[in-house]
Design brief:
alpha/beta; 3-stranded antiparallel beta sheet; about 30% helix; about 230 residues
Length: about 230
């Protein structure tokens, strides 16, 4: 995370509204956003919910998110699960070494756009702590939120069904898109588990394949032709 750590000291974050009316943050001076300017809500829904969460049906899930950021993927996961009205439990682990300050979080408008019951309360709760202690945010939704990077995160078991890989782009954060990282993520997935990411660069897909994943090329959200799903067969 050294590149981003350096950027945090040299660049400020600003709040902007994307094309679908939802918020994102931009790293001033780096031309890098937390989400697509063509629509933050649309992008996260397609990449992480439609291609990730909805891949599994009627199954309790253990999810690992690399790059918690604004918390949008976590909020959408709660909303999607709650709207199905199934007693499916989500056990969500989020890694974010560089949490966003409260002033910027208060500018984000996701809780006003997502009409799921308790969405606003849920969004507030998920930003109130960063600890390895697991917390039940709402019934059937547990969150473990950590300041560790994926390089620091260790477990001896293949724990997860689903990985949301939402690091900054390879040009900004190249150390997150290496073979060593993807081999580690492969080891953290259960058999049949998947990794989903917005990035569809050829080099990234080749590296995922070398790490052992089967690659699927899926249609992307507005402004992005393709996104990636990687499966541990």
């Amino acid at each position: 995370m050294s590149n981003i750590k350096k950027s945090k000291s040299q660049f400020q974050l600003s709040h902007i509204i994307t094309a679908d009316g939802s918020s994102t943050l931009i790293l001033n001076g780096l031309n890098e956003q937390y989400h697509s300017i063509n629509g933050a809500l649309q992008e996260s829904t397609v990449v992480y919910i439609q291609n990730g969460l909805n891949y599994f049906t009627n199954k309790n899930l253990k999810i690992l998110e690399i790059g918690f950021g604004t918390g949008l993927n976590c909020l959408l996961s709660y909303a999607a699960n709650a709207e199905k009205k199934l007693p499916k439990t989500i056990d969500y682990t989020a890694l974010e070494p560089f949490p966003i300050n409260i002033d910027l979080l208060n500018q984000l408008n996701y809780d006003t756009l997502i009409e799921t019951k308790f969405a606003a309360e849920f969004f507030k709760k998920i930003h109130q702590f960063a600890t390895l202690e697991k917390k039940e945010i709402q019934p059937h939704f547990f969150l473990t939120k950590s300041l560790l990077s994926i390089q620091q995160f260790n477990t001896e078991e293949a724990l997860f069904d689903l990985i949301y890989f939402d690091a900054f782009s390879p040009s900004i954060q190249p150390e997150m898109w290496t073979l060593d990282i993807f081999i580690k993520l492969f080891s953290l997935l259960k058999k049949g588990g998947i990794l989903v990411t917005y990035c569809a660069k050829g080099e990234v897909k080749r590296t995922l394949k070398t790490a052992g994943f089967k690659i699927e090329h899926l249609a992307g959200p507005p402004g992005k032709r393709e996104v990636t799903r990687a499966i541990k067969e």
